[in-house]
């Protein structure tokens, strides 16, 4: 190169190093015009094209440079490798980098590039020695410490990874990637607040860093779940959406966005997101597992099982996937396989509380009642049962209660408290029952031998008078350990007789015919709960039965549904003024007692009717029975209850049709002998 061209070259390099790419390119091209085979200039033109994202042009310049050299040169091979990697040709890039380090063993950039490309291919252990070499050659380089931290993170060496990432941000506080990965390491240690700060720092430095948006979303989602902060959940959703705007091929972000949409009840949208993640990353085990859960919530159990089996084929040691598979197998009534799934989950992760809780439900459904009660205690740690009350008395161990006073305290929900209350008469007198305040009048009348007090925070002073205490469901271990321990009762709750007379008088004004109370869904329909609910529009066959007056017992806002049913079927579902079906539970008990029959899905309405000894026909998803049926096709807790069951792959309409036929028979018998009480029992245990 002539002296003049050398001067031009030095000026071009100065512009290039300062980031003035246009000026540098113009000077490089001037040199090439005078000396077309100047190899280093050709290489640097390739570097500029690469920096501008023009990878095909960059490859042409890089190959011309190598050709002009007439022999392999490490720097030129490294440049071509970078261009090929940017073009999505990692295999070719690896070969170029390998040639570069073979030609020049102490070439830190080539070792670093080779390590990063191998890591991106999932070959982290092959990448590790190249990262080590780069760090050895440049111990003061932040990027080298960052890359070595990635190796330690892959090896689950948290302390070593933390040290590397901390050193990287110390050496270069503007290294967004290092802040991002430091955040990941802090997350794995459960230090969420610090992790969030790191991700925010990374994004302040590099707002277009899609991985940091995704990671911040994960942190906010977790922190929001811990604190129940819906605003944080909304911010997490925005993070995932922003990550995908920046990088639509980010499979992790699609999977995470799917989880967020599922949590908000948007299951169909969630499935689309997870399917996009799998299209981008077919070996994404966690996405298959999540898809299985979502399909299960849609009632697509066979598809869910296949998805979870695919997840486990990819990641056999995923305890959550084994547990989720157990849930689906339970739904499909493949109980032995479900238990095996939970057992495997617990073997892999002994502290997996959700798997232990679900195992208790399968044990109930297979009739292993005593063992089921023991496993049911895991519900405390998993949050499936109400948080333990702050009582200092020892837990009752089932021994005789002679001379001691027991505190029997309700838990889990109104329906559950009503079920467990059936054990109160067996405790004897003088004991204390703490319950939902709305149940106090009803329980006090029904169990006059005990003292009934409302659940309060702090606890009612009377609770201090007890010698022992027991959560209501936990008493089942001692009082309902086998089927022969369930009494054949005619109801253990007693409604106010004056209010019963009031409601009977009101019902008489409707004219001849059966008075049937109906409740078609729970007040909570999220997730799997929705599978146990019906839609009032599905009740056409029932509502068309003649000789029946239908009474609304649906305890939440349902005006639009009632109006729609009346318009569609021409049937009025009667409502009452002066009663709050959610709050006035004592009056609800009186109304229920006055009715001829209650028809309900698995709700507190059905529990109330069964506890009052009133005839009640229950629409039940078979898998929702667990502790309700104790593995039977009837309900041991409530002798007056008859089940109309459906399996996961059966629609509600045929079940409702069977029920409507039974109801029509009942109504016709009542019409034939109108002045006698309807013959509602004895009935078969099941409506199937």
Q: Summarize this, please?
A:
The protein is 57% helix and 7% strand.
What features would you describe in this structure?
The chain is α/β, with parallel strands linked by helices. A 6-stranded parallel beta sheet has the order 7-6-5-8-9-10, sandwiched between helices. α29 (559-569) links the parallel β6 (548-552) and β7 (573-574). α1 runs antiparallel to α2 (21-34) and α10 packs antiparallel against α11 (176-188). The protein is elongated. The N and C termini lie far apart (95 Å). Residues 681-688 have low confidence and may be disordered.
Strand content: 5-15%
Mean pLDDT: 89
Q: In whole angstroms, how far apart are the ends?
A: 95 Å
Low-confidence stretches: 681-688
Structural class: alpha/beta
């Amino acid at each position: 190169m002539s002296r003049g061209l050398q001067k031009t070259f030095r000026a071009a390099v100065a512009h290039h190093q300062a980031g003035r790419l246009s000026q540098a390119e113009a000077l490089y091209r001037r040199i090439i015009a005078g000396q077309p085979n100047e190899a280093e200039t050709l290489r640097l033109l390739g570097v500029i094209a690469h920096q501008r994202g023009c990878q095909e042009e960059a490859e042409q310049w890089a190959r011309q440079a190598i050709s002009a050299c007439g022999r392999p040169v490490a720097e030129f091979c490294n440049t071509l490798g970078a261009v090929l990697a940017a073009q999505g040709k990692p295999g070719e890039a690896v070969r170029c980098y390998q040639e570069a380090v073979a030609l020049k063993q102490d070439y830190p950039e080539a070792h670093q590039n080779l390590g990063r490309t191998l890591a991106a291919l999932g070959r982290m252990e092959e990448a590790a020695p190249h990262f080590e070499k780069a760090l050895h050659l440049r111990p003061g380089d932040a990027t080298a410490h960052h890359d070595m931290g990635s190796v330690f993170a892959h090896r689950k060496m948290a302390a070593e990874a933390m040290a590397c990432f901390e050193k990287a941000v110390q050496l270069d506080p503007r290294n967004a990637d290092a802040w991002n990965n430091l955040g990941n390491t802090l997350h794995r240690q459960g230090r969420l607040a610090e992790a969030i700060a790191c991700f925010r720092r990374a994004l302040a430095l590099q707002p277009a860093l899609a991985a940091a948006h995704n990671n911040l979303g994960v942190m906010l989602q977790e922190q929001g779940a811990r604190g129940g902060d819906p605003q944080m959940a909304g911010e997490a959703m925005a993070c995932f959406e922003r990550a995908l705007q920046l990088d639509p091929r980010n499979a992790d972000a699609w999977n995470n966005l799917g989880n967020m949409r599922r949590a908000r009840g948007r299951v169909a949208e969630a499935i689309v997101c997870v399917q996009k993640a799998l299209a981008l990353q077919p070996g994404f085990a966690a996405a298959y597992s999540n898809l299985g859960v979502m399909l299960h919530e849609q009632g697509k159990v066979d598809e869910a099982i296949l998805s979870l089996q695919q997840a486990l084929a990819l990641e056999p040691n995923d305890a959550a996937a084994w547990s989720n598979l157990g849930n689906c197998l339970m739904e499909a009534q493949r109980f032995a396989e479900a238990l095996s799934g939970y057992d495997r989950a617990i073997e892999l992760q002994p502290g997996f509380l959700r798997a232990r809780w679900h195992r208790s439900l399968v044990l109930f459904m297979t009739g292993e009642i005593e063992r089921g009660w023991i496993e049911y205690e895991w519900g405390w740690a998993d949050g499936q049962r109400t948080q333990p009350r702050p009582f200092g008395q020892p837990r009752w161990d089932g021994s005789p209660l002679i001379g001691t006073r027991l505190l029997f305290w309700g838990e889990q929900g109104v329906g559950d408290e009503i079920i467990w209350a059936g054990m109160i008469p067996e405790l004897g007198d003088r004991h204390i029952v703490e319950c939902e305040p709305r149940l106090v009048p009803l329980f006090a009348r029904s169990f006059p031998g005990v003292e009934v007090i409302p659940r309060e925070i702090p606890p009612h002073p009377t609770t201090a008078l007890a010698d022992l205490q027991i959560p209501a469901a936990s008493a089942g271990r001692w009082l309902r350990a086998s089927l022969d321990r369930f009494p054949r009762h005619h109801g253990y709750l007693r409604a106010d007789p004056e209010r019963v007379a009031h409601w009977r008088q009101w019902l008489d004004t409707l004219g001849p015919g059966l008075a049937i109370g109906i409740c078609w869904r729970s007040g909570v329909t999220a997730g799997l709960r929705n599978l146990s609910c019906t839609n009032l529009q599905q009740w056409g066959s029932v509502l068309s039965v003649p000789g029946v007056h239908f009474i609304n017992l649906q305890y939440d806002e349902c005006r639009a549904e009632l109006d729609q049913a009346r318009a569609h079927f021409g049937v009025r579902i009667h409502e009452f003024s002066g009663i709050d079906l959610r709050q006035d539970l004592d009056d609800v008990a009186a109304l229920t007692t006055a009715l001829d029959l209650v028809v309900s899905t698995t709700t507190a309405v059905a529990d109330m009717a069964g506890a009052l000894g009133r005839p009640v026909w229950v629409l039940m998803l078979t898998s929702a029975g667990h502790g309700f049926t104790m593995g039977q096709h009837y309900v041991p807790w409530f002798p007056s209850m008859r089940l109309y069951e459906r399996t996961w792959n059966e629609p509600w309409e045929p079940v409702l049709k069977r029920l409507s036929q039974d109801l029509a028979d009942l109504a016709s018998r009542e019409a034939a002998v109108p002045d006698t009480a309807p013959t509602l029992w004895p009935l078969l245990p099941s409506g199937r």
